[in-house]
Write a structure and sequence with these properties.
The strands form 3 sheets. Strands 5-4-1-8-9-10-11-12-13 form a 9-stranded mixed sheet, with helices on both faces. A 4-stranded mixed sheet has the order 3-2-6-7. 35% of the residues lie in helices and 26% in strands. By secondary structure, the protein is α/β, with parallel strands linked by helices. The chain is built from 11 helices and 15 strands. Helix 1 packs across helix 9, helix 7 packs across helix 8 and helix 9 packs antiparallel against helix 10.
Length: 306
């Protein structure tokens, strides 16, 4: 069976639901509060596992209760956590999330132990990377760790997937080591340096990244679906119509869907259609890992395209 290594963050999400987002200096009364396991790396690992994938997590937590809870949550979803290291005298990563009635969210991430991850952590897990087929990364751990992982993964002949979030500029040394890049519209704008106002700008920005060395690119566009782009072709895919409750982890669920599709040998068109269903289901529930669907729900989903 194919396997995947996810290198990335583990956060405890502190989620406040409210009727409206507070303005600067304003206090509003919230509707509810939850503590939900999250972190882009852990979210994507759980998404892959719930869709039937064999997945190992490489990451770092602090020596506090949040760290123990996050590892237990991954274990519950059958994610291999043997390579999740505990950092002493450090807090686990935390994300403070506000969600309004329109399912919009604002997020503040305090990286904590995630930023204590080192190149040595990757070297210590090189056997696990070598035994995998795909390596999935994001940008909630130090950029030098991301770069080192990509270099080692390509030396070992692995297929690499990078979700460049949170958005930041990446040099060509990183971009050229990525087989599949999955940014959203904002991340695409920052990566390319091109201001995006319409579909022509999206295409121009995407082509600039392909010229920089990215083999395949999927730009997620929310309700507008996504764009798939290579050196030779491009194609738009529509999103599914659902009643959105919370968009937290929508991108992570999509990455998980793409990964499991490729692990199962699907053609890219099929993998994108599958991932679109996964993402649609994720926004119908609140929270990060709590919203990620299981394979049975995805296979039974018969949504209408927008």
């Amino acid at each position: 069976m194919s396997s995947v290594v996810v290198v990335g963050s583990l956060n405890m999400d502190l989620v406040a639901s409210t009727k409206m987002m507070p303005r600067a200096g304003e206090t509003v009364i919230g509707a509810s509060f939850q503590q939900i396991p999250g972190g882009k790396g852990a979210n994507q690992a759980v998404a892959i596992a719930r869709l039937g994938g064999n997945v190992r997590m490489i990451g770092t937590v602090g020596d506090d209760g949040f760290g123990d809870t996050l590892v237990e949550a991954l274990n519950k979803d059958k994610v291999d956590t043997a390579s999740v290291r505990k950092e002493n005298d450090c807090s686990t990563g935390v994300a403070v999330i506000t969600v309004d009635e329109q399912a919009n969210n604002s997020i503040i991430v305090i990286p904590g132990a995630n930023y204590r991850m080192t190149i040595e952590d990757i070297d210590n897990c090189i056997d696990q990377i070598n035994e995998s087929d795909l390596v999935v990364l994001q940008l909630e751990v130090p950029i030098e760790v991301v770069k080192h992982t990509l270099v080692k993964a390509k030396e070992l002949g692995k297929y690499t997937i990078l979700n460049p979030a949170p958005a930041q500029y990446l040099d060509n040394d990183i971009i050229s080591k990525v087989d599949l890049l999955i940014p959203n519209e904002t991340e695409l704008e920052i990566l390319s340096g091109i201001t995006i106002k319409d579909q022509n700008d999206i295409l121009e920005a995407g082509r600039k990244l392909v010229v920089s060395g990215v083999k395949e690119l999927i730009v997620t566009l929310g309700e507008q679906g996504c764009l798939y782009l290579t050196e030779k072709e491009y194609k738009y895919f529509k999103a599914y119509k659902v009643n959105a409750v919370d968009t937290t982890a929508a991108g992570d669920s999509f990455v998980g869907g793409i990964t499991i599709g490729l692990m199962n040998g699907l053609e890219m068109d099929q993998a994108i259609e599958f991932a679109s269903k996964v993402g649609a289901l994720a926004v119908t529930k609140q929270g990060a890992q709590s919203s990620l669907p299981y394979l049975e729900a995805v296979t039974q989903f018969e949504g209408e395209l927008l």
